[in-house]
Amino acid sequence: MVLVCGVTGILFIQINKNQSVTAGFQYTAEEVFTMWNITKQLQIENSELKQLLNCTGNLTLLRSEYGQLELFMNATLYNLTLMSLLINEQQTSMQLEAENQKQRSILFSNHLTFLWGFCNKSTLHCSRCLPGWVEHASRCFFLSSVAEKWEVARQLCISMGGDLAIVLNAEDQAFLTNMTFQYVQAHPQEDFHSAWIGLQDMVKEGTHLWINGKTIKWDVIYWKESEPNNAVPDWDTDLSGQDCVAIVPPK
Question: Which one, 118, 153, 187, 242, has the greatest CB density within 10 A?
Fold first, then answer.
């Protein structure tokens, strides 16, 4: 039994060694086949890379076409931006036109006809005063070329919405004097003597009253000395003297 077992053991060992050698040969063959496949793939990839390298001209052409396409896209985006800005400007313009139309309809309505009398519709320049009137110190003055007596002249002023002028201070006197002077210079063909103001002593001789009922202030120094007086002109046959005051333009 011992001998048989020993031989059996030898045979068993010998068989295991042969199987191990055979397995070793099989692993080496698979590894070689795998490496061969890898090499083959690398060769194919290398060939493809060479073909791509030989197509450098085509790549340059594609790059140029891509650049042109990029320029075209940029130009398209620029045009779209301009179009968007134009649409926005058109919308803004339409909104402003609608707003202006609304304001014009209000400004030129019948309710504001009176106010437009103080404005130039061409220049849209408005004044406190009607056309033909001159503004001074928040008041409006009109110099008429029609010669009338003092009482008639006052009624004409009242019919125009005013009254004969009152001289409140030296500035008023300078303004009215200059107004008469400029009129004479602009109308040399007219026989312009003087312009009535709202001062008279018809109620009481020697007591001059303004049309508002006030007397001349004691500190008035911008008139000639002793003016106004009760001088009797040559044409006064009744010798009643002067009752109304006028501004005589300087020579």
Answer: 153
Q: How many CB atoms lie within 10 A of CB 96?
A: 10
Cis peptide before 228 (omega within 30 of 0): yes
* Cα distances (angstroms) measured from residue 211 to each of 161, 166, 204, 216: 15, 8, 14, 11
CA dihedral 149, 150, 155, 159 (to 10 degrees): 90
Q: What is the pLDDT along the chain (251 residues), one digit of tens a residue?
A: 433 333 333 333 344 444 444 444 455 666 666 776 777 777 777 776 667 666 655 556 556 666 777 777 777 788 788 888 888 888 888 888 888 888 777 666 766 666 666 676 677 677 778 888 999 998 999 999 899 999 999 999 999 999 999 999 999 999 999 999 999 999 999 989 899 999 999 888 888 999 999 998 888 888 888 888 777 666 666 666 678 999 999 88
- One DSSP character per residue, 97-153 reads HHHHHHHHHHHTSGGGHHHHTTEETTTTEE-SS-TT-EEETTEEE--------HHHH
Determine the 3-state secondary structure of 200 from DSSP: strand
CA nearest 211: which of 244, 164, 143?
A: 164
First vs last C-alpha separation in the chain = 172
Residue ranges and CATH numbers for the domains of the chain are 2-10+125-247 (3.10.100.10), 29-113 (no CATH)
Return the structure tokens found at 147: 């010669």
Beta strands in the chain (DSSP E): 119-120, 125-126, 134-136, 139-141, 195-204, 207-210, 244-247
User: How many angstroms separate the CA atoms of 233 and 123, rounded?
Assistant: 48
